[in-house]
Structures are given as structure tokens and as C-alpha cells.
Amino acid sequence: MASRLTLFKYLPRTLRPTKEGGYFILLTLGIGLAAVNTGNNLLYLLVALMLSIIVVSGLLSEQSLRRLVLSADPTAPAAAGEPVSILVRLRNDKKRLPSFSLRVDPVPASDVPERVYRSDAARFIGIGPQSTESHPLRITFSRRGCYRLEGMTLSTTFPFGFFIKTAARPEPVELWIYPKVHPVAWPIRLASFGTAPAASHQNGQGAAFHHFRAYQRGDDCRLIHWKLSARQGRWIVKEREREEGSGVLLLFNNIAPAGGADGWQGRFERGVETTASLASALIRAGMKVSIQTADQEIGLGEGPGHLDRILKCLALIEASRSAFPPTVHPRGRTVVRVRWEETPGGGEIPSDAVVGIDPEEEGTDVVR
């Protein structure tokens, strides 16, 4: 599918009349025809004045769009149905002339359907010469996922509001839309294990050192290695080994039903939201959490950075067509299963049904 910015590769500007501008053009044509038919000099002067207004409008709007530098920075991920804010900064590099009546709109990638998002443009009344202004642009997606913006469009109706002149700014931005997180009302009883935790040689929150990596949004600042960060000129985090034998494993079976029962997509989405809500509540309570599905697994961890990784996984999760459910390896962890599928008898399990795996299995517990 062609990019929505393809037109701007051939035309640096696009111009279209507003409703008032359309009336002004029709009025100009009408008076022009009357001047030609009657030969009245006053009508010729009036037509010349109206045509000059159109020319002046084009020159001033072009001057308003020139030498503007745009940058965009997403503030934080949002949940589906909630607006995500993008801080838009406009810098006017002109030495003497200001810019007026500016509007910035997002341009999603061509594979993003228009029906899944709506946006509120960032508006700038005026930007003085050699100055910078910032305003938020809000865009709301109705579905979870990772969306890419190809850039922004910068438009103005200055000076008379008769025409909208638009320029494109290729400013790729990646937006993460997480599943909705609901309050968790049910109590969670954790099993107590007598075995000491053992290092697993995987990333986690254990005492043993594992490796260094670049800082990610949400990581605990206490894990920053200051000397190495100062040496490399960027934030470096000290990753520790994961401890086995503690924490909670959230088991989400994302295998689609063979028959494709009616309404299973809605139940699947509610199951994703329930898993995200449980993970958020447990991590915010200071517990270690891991996620396991039919086709992927996120290891045991804690803290905002780990919650961010879990929510990104759940934002992209899709129903799997695999015939094999996820294999459970509790390793002393409390295992919680989130069930969204129908029961064998055909009755639908409520979307907030969260139960433990059979208590006979090692390291499991029941959540009511």
C-alpha cells in the first residue's frame, strides 16, 4: 500500500480552499464574468483586488511555513481507548518574521486503518522568530498493538483563512498501545516454599551479576552502573541473574478454538486484559512475575521495566493456531491460569475467571 506521504515527494506543498475560501473563489469568478460582460471599470478593479488577495494569501502562508523545524516525542505508552500524548516542538529559525496559525496532524503508516484511531491536532497560535513552542498532540487507538507514524503534516490558514496550505515533515514515531488494565478485586494467596531460590543464569532480580545492557524506559534507576555510563556517554544498567523458586507464573493459553466459536475474539481480548491487570497488580505489590503462553515466555522479574516488557508482549499477542497448549514448568512458583475459552459443556467462563492449575501440581496455588 502506498505511503500517505507519497504525494509530498512530488509536491512540497498542497493547497486546498476552506469553505469560506470556496465562496470567495466563486464570488471572484462571478464578479469577473460581470466585469467582462458589462465592461465596468469598477468591477475590473474589484476583481483585481480579490485576485491580489488570493496571491497575497499564498505568499504569506508560504512565509509562515518556511524554516520551521518540527520534532515529536511520545510521552508514555497508553492503553487501548485512551489518548496517547505526543509532545510536538516547533522551532522558528527565521530571524525576523514570526509564523502564525499553525496546525500539526499525525500521519499513521499506510497499514493502520483509519477506523482504529482518531486524533486531536496540536495547534500553535504564533511562534516568534528564533523561538520554540511546544504543544501536545493526542491520538487515540481503539486496539492494542504497536503503531508507527510516518510523520506529521504542518498546515496553516494564515492570513485570511481562505486556504489551507500543508507541508509534510517525515518524523517517524513508534507508539505502544497496551491492553486495558482494570482494578484487581480478588485476593491472591501466595504459597510459601521452603526451598531456597537458585540462580538460573537468566535475566532477573537475583544477587548474582548477569550482564550489562542499555537503559530502557521504566528500569529501576538503582540498577544504573554510573561509572560505565559516564565512560560510554549513555545509561547502562547492571542486569542480575534471575532467581528460580519464587514469584508468580501467569499462564495464558492463547490457542484459538478449533471450531471458531462465535464471540471468541471478544473473550480472548478480555483474557488479555485480565492477564495484564493481574501482572500490573502483582508487580505493583512488589512481587516477581513471569508470563507464559503457547508460543512465548517472559522470565521472572519485577519493577516497572519488567511490567513494561510484559505489557508490550501482551500488546502484540495474537491467537495461536497451534494444537499444543503451553507446557508448564512451575519450578516452585505459584502458577495462575487465566482462562477465557469455553468449557467442554459449552458454558462460557467469565472473562475475570482466574484460577490456579490443579493443586496436585507442584508449586501451584488457587486464586478465587
Describe the protein's architecture and organization.
By secondary structure, the protein is α+β, with helices and mostly antiparallel strands. The protein folds into three domains: 178 residues, Immunoglobulin-like (Sandwich), CATH 2.60.40.10; 140 residues; 45 residues, no CATH class. Helix content is 25%, strand content 35%. It has six helices and 18 strands. The strands form four sheets. Strands 1, 3, 5, 7, 9, 10 and 11 form a seven-stranded mixed sheet that branches. Helix 5 links the parallel strand 14 and strand 15. Helix 2 runs antiparallel to helix 3 and helix 5 runs antiparallel to helix 6. The longest helix has 25 residues. The chain is elongated and about 95 Å long.
Number of domains: 3
How many distinct helices? 6
Report the biggest beta sheet as strand number plus sense, adding barrel if it closes: 7 strands, mixed
Q: In CATH terms, what is the architecture of the largest domain?
A: Sandwich
What percentage of amino acids are in beta strands? 25-35%
Shape: elongated
Q: State the CATH class of the largest domain.
A: Mainly Beta
Q: At the third CATH level, what is the topology name of the largest domain?
A: Immunoglobulin-like
Total count of strands: 18
Mean pLDDT: 80
Percent of residues in helices comes to 10-25%
**Uncertain spans:** 189-208, 342-368
Helix and strand sequence? HEHHEEEEEEEEEEEHEEHEEHEE
What's the short version?
The protein has 368 residues and is of the alpha+beta class. It has three domains: 1-178, Immunoglobulins (Immunoglobulin-like, Sandwich), CATH 2.60.40; 180-195 and 245-368; 200-244, no CATH class. It has helices at residues 7-10, 19-38, 41-65, 226-232, 264-284, 303-316, and strands at residues 14-17, 68-74, 78-79, 83-92, 99-108, 117-120, 122-127, 131-141, 145-156, 163-169, 173-178, 198-214, 236-244, 248-252, 289-292, 297-301, 334-338, 354-356.
